[in-house]
Design goal:
Elements (H helix, E strand, L loop, with lengths): L1 H5 L5 E6 L7 H13 L6 E6 L1 H4 L6 H17 L8 E4 L5 H10 L4 H5 L2 H7 L8 H15 L5 E3 L5 H18 L8 E3 L34 H10 L18 H14 L3 H8 L4 H27 L2 H30 L7
Parallel strand pairs: 1-2, 2-3, 4-5
Helix pairs in contact: 4-13, 5-8, 5-14, 8-9, 10-13, 11-12, 11-13
Bound molecules: adenosine-5'-triphosphate and L-tryptophanamide (LTN).
């Protein structure tokens, strides 16, 4: 059914990253690297720094401003080209917040309480977190559907939010008897859709983890990267020849997946070379490929960061282009809902 509806929409890819901390290797492999690869003539690509999502938990204003620019620098350093894609920050396009309100009337409260990201972030504190943290997925659905995006590249952790986006689109289309929103496809592909913490193989690598040793930051220098990989939690067994055998060794599996994602190989190809070897040999090799892949990105990020005025100009231009796509879709949504529009 979704195929039938989706055929009416032009192919358009949308994705976003929160400026809630410095970006990590997880963000790079699960998101940024793929954002860059998806650019081209097949679909329009729109990439967003979701600052309105970041403020669902407290952010120091000066730090937030710096992180928005730093995230823009990271997108471009990873290969997102503002000439080929629209690159902007969410709060500069008011259609996102307006559409989110409309979706607050479509989505049900129970859907929000079921979100694992909400449960993780709220913990036992569900009554005291911001209302925005609970409503977060309605804003995410607004980000996507305000562009009638047909596909969204994300890491594994965002799958549930994308299902909710599809539920909102389907409920809206059904309640108003229209085919106004596509049923957006998640693009969760590759071996690095869930990069795990270097300290705990059961937790995902995250920019907001209190332990800096748990992650590799895109701004880490070569020595720091090598040291974090050296200290990463592993086991004492040698590496097997095939991934199947790593089923119950999450930390080992994670490091092999990271290696494969960095070198664009399959994990089995990597294991074929390291079979029988221990982490004493594997970790330095991983550090080498990580530094080789990340150091040009770190360098380019620093170059972009040296010229904040240029970043601001790129975000201003991207925001204006995003606004031009979003506003007519928002207006049509208001018309469908019966909200009277009389201004020219
Ligand atoms: P936070 O810690 O603030 O929740 P985060 O590091 O989880 O942040 P997000 O801004 O929530 O990052 O996610 C941006 C994108 O990066 C999303 O597409 C998400 O799926 C992806 N992503 C985040 N962490 C990982 C990870 N460990 N492995 C693969 N992809 C990831
Ligand atoms: N919720 C996502 C970030 C995000 C996003 C989006 C991703 C906000 N809006 C729209 C894809 C499309 C996260 O926490 N990673």
């Amino acid at each position: 059914m979704s195929d039938q509806i989706n055929a009416q929409f032009r192919p358009r890819i949308f994705s976003g990253i929160q400026p809630s901390g410095g970006l990590t290797l997880g963000n790079y492999l699960g998101a940024l690297k793929r954002f860059a690869a998806l650019q081209g003539d097949k679909a329009e690509t729109i990439y967003c720094i979701v600052d309105l999502h970041a403020i669902t938990v407290w952010q120091d204003p000066e730090v937030l401003r710096a992180r928005i620019r730093e995230a823009a620098a990271a997108f471009m350093a990873a290969g997102v080209d503002p000439a080929q894609s629209i690159l902007f920050n969410q709060s500069q396009v008011s259609a996102h917040a307006e559409m989110a309100w409309l979706f607050n009337t479509v989505a049900r409260v129970g859907w929000m309480y079921r979100m694992t990201q909400f449960k993780d972030k709220a913990g036992k504190n569900t009554e005291n977190v911001s209302l925005g943290l609970l409503a977060y997925p309605a804003l995410m659905a607004a980000d996507i559907l305000t562009y009638q995006a047909t596909a969204v590249p994300v890491g594994e952790d965002q799958k549930q939010h994308l299902e909710l986006t599809r539920d909102i689109a389907a409920k809206f289309n059904h309640d108003y008897g229209v085919e106004h929103f596509p049923i957006t496809e998640p693009l969760i592909e590759g071996v690095a859709t869930r990069v795990m913490s270097l300290r705990d193989g059961s937790k995902k690598m995250s920019k907001s983890d209190p332990s800096d040793a748990s992650r590799i930051n895109l701004t880490d220098d070569a020595d720091t990267i090598a040291q974090k990989i050296r200290k990463a939690r592993t086991d004492a067994e040698p590496l097997p020849g095939q991934m199947d055998a790593l089923k119950d060794r999450p930390e080992a599996k994670n490091l092999v997946n990271i290696y494969a994602a960095l070198t664009d190989e399959t994990p089995d190809q990597v294991l074929a070379r390291f079979e029988g070897q221990g982490f004493g040999a594997f970790k330095p090799a991983l550090a080498e490929v990580a530094v080789e892949a990340l150091s040009p990105i770190t360098r380019r990020m620093a170059e972009f960061m040296a010229d904040p005025a240029q970043i601001d100009a790129i975000l201003a231009d991207g925001s204006a282009r995003a606004d031009a796509v979003a506003t007519p879709i928002l207006e049509r949504t208001k018309d469908i809902m019966g909200l009277l529009r009389t201004r020219a």
